[in-house]
Amino acid sequence: MIDTLIIANDAREAEVLKQMIENANSSFKVAEILSSVREAKIWLTSNNVVHLIFCDIELRDGLGFEIFQGVPAAPVIYFTTYDGYALEAFENSGIDYLIKPIDERKLENSLRKFLQLKNLFGEEGSLIQPRPVKVGFPKFNSYKTSLLVYFQDKIIPVNMDQMDFIYYNNYIVTVHAQGAHYETRDTLNNIITTLNPRDFFRANRQFIIHRKAVTNIQQYFGRKLLVGMSAPTPEPVIISKANASDFLKWMEGLNIEEARFAISLDDARFSA
Q: I need a labelling partner for 44 at 20 to 30 A (CA). Which of 98, 132, 148, 155 fits?
C-alpha cells in the first residue's frame, strides 16, 4: 500500500482528488487530508513520512513550498490554478505539476511517473521509506559567512554582513551589497536554507532581506506590510498578510524557525 497525503485549500476539492487517486490505482491510499501550511508542518513533524504528497500551492496561510523547508517529506505532486510556479515546484521536492481542474488522465500519468521513479531509485522498490521524525531543535550554528557570486569573468565571495538583499526576477538571482549587485546561479530556495535566520528573512517570492537593511515598516493594503530598505530595490518589498506576524517577530529578534518548531511539538503533544 502506498500511503498518500493531500494538502489542499478546499475540503471539497480534496475529497474529489482523494477519490480520483484511489480510483486511478488501488495501490494508493490517502492517509490524511490537511488544509494549511501550519497544519501540514505539525502533521509531518509528528508522524511518519508518507510515500507521496499531493500539495496545493496556494494555501490559506501561505504557499505549499513553505511546508517542506526543514521538514522531512516524501516526493510531492503540486497542483494549482496558476502555471507560474513550475520552477519552484521542482525545486521543492516536486516530481510533477498539475493544473486545476485536475484531469483524470494527467493524474494517472503523475501516479505512473511516481511508480517509475519508485522502482528506479527506491531501496527495495521504494522511492522513499517512511521514517520516524527526530525530536529536537534544528541547529543554527552552521551557516554560510559568504556567498559566491559572478562578476565579469570571475567568481568572488560576498560577505553576508555586507548584503542588503537577494532578488529574484525572470529566472535570474542577484545579490545586492554596498551599492553593487552580482549574479548568482543558485536559487532563493536553496540560498535561504544556508543563511542565518536571525539575520535574513524570506520576504516573498522575489526577496530575501537582511535585518540591517530594514529602515521602516508601513501598513499596506489588505493587512500586508511595506518594508522600507536602506538600499534601493527593483520593486517594493511587500510582506503578505500570512507572513506579517512572523516578520514582526523576526524584527524583534525572535528566531522564527525555533519558535515554529517548538509550537509544532507542543501542538503535537496536545493532540496526542
A: 98
- For residue 141 the three cell numbers come to 550554528
Tell whether 95 and 163 lie within a shared domain.
no
Residue 262 lies in a domain: no
Does residue 38 contact residue 71 with C-beta atoms inside 8 Å?
no
User: Cβ(127)–Cβ(117) under 8 Å?
Assistant: yes
Computed over every residue of the chain, the mean pLDDT equals 83
State how beta strands 237-239 and 58-59 pair: unpaired
Distance of alpha carbon 41 from alpha carbon 73, whole angstroms: 10
Tell me the pLDDT tens digit for each residue of 3-62: 999 999 999 999 999 999 999 999 999 999 999 988 998 888 877 778 999 999 999 888
**Mean pLDDT value of segment 150-173:** 90
Q: The domain that contains 77 carries what CATH number?
A: 3.40.50.2300
Q: How many domains does the chain have?
A: 2
